[in-house]
Design a protein that fits this description.
Layout: E1 2-9, H1 13-29, E2 33-40, H2 47-58, E3 61-65, H3 72-85, E4 90-93, H4 105-113, E5 118-122, E6 129-130, H5 135-152, E7 164-167, H6 168-174, H7 185-197, E8 201-205, E9 207-208, H8 220-235
Parallel strand pairs: 1-2, 1-4, 2-3, 5-8, 6-9
Antiparallel strand pairs: 4-7, 5-7
Helix pairs in contact: 1-2
Length: about 240
């Protein structure tokens, strides 16, 4: 199985310096045929330059450099499009800030090989945990997950998780041109569409840790936007 790991970046220079070698080592050590696709929105801190250097050194790192900050959902769509053009079988999403452990990559792939279409790394099932979040951030995240499950009758415990893998064929079925959400709501809409379409979805436990470098992109403005977009998904009939 040929795997693409899509990682959106914006001002993640220090984090990406350590993440790319870690991911590359996991792929090599486990005999995984995979590439790392970085989608960078012209980070002012020079993240793109770091990625270019790794691309020349490692050979399995692809940089998509965009002219401006266009949003998380848009970044994933760009990365997925590149993965399609390179004929990858499985397409993984991972945060750039080091919060997702690359050592779990083989476990995600194993679940695809077992027949699942979407595999989500979950903080909220047995064995999952969050390392170093504040109490209020834990409450907001838990509350958002409960809100989504309640509104859409979803069985997924962690629908906002950004650590996941999906099959190429599933993306064809979902038709990304119909996925309108951006930001953090993109993950939710993808999850709900998979459930609604009847694709096989499962969760595996992960330990989530907060970033070592830089600031979180999750502001109060983003949170309010997130809940607004979730309600718009409900109004659009996604719950039916």
């Amino acid at each position: 199985m040929k795997i693409a790991i899509v990682i959106p970046t914006y001002n993640e220079r220090e984090n990406i310096k350590s993440l790319i070698p870690r991911v590359s080592d996991v792929l090599k050590d486990n005999g995984i045929n995979g590439d790392i696709i970085i989608v960078d929105d012209s980070s002012p801190d020079g993240t793109g330059d770091v990625v270019k250097a790794f691309s020349e050194k490692l050979g399995n790192v692809v940089l998509i450099s965009r002219k401006e900050k266009l949003g998380l959902g848009s970044a994933y769509k760009s990365g997925f499009g590149k993965a399609f053009s390179l004929d990858f079988d499985g397409i993984m999403e991972m945060d750039a800030d080091g919060s997702h452990d690359p050592l779990l990559i083989p476990k995600f792939i194993k679940k695809l090989e077992e027949g699942f279409h979407l595999v989500i790394g979950s903080r909220y099932i047995a064995g999952g945990e969050i390392g170093n979040w504040s109490a209020d951030r834990r409450l907001i995240s838990r509350g958002a997950s409960f809100f989504i499950r309640f509104l859409f009758s979803s069985r997924i415990q962690d629908p906002t998780s950004g650590y996941r893998i999906i099959t190429r064929e599933s993306l064809k079925i979902l038709d990304l041109s119909k996925v309108n959400s951006d930001g953090y709501t993109f993950q939710v809409e993808m999850t709900l569409r998979c459930e609604k379409t009847g694709l096989k979805v499962c969760e595996i436990p992960i330990r989530f840790v907060d970033r070592d470098f830089g600031k979180s992109k999750l502001s109060w403005k983003e949170m309010l936007r997130f809940f607004k977009e979730i309600l718009e998904l409900f109004i659009s009939g996604m719950h039916q």
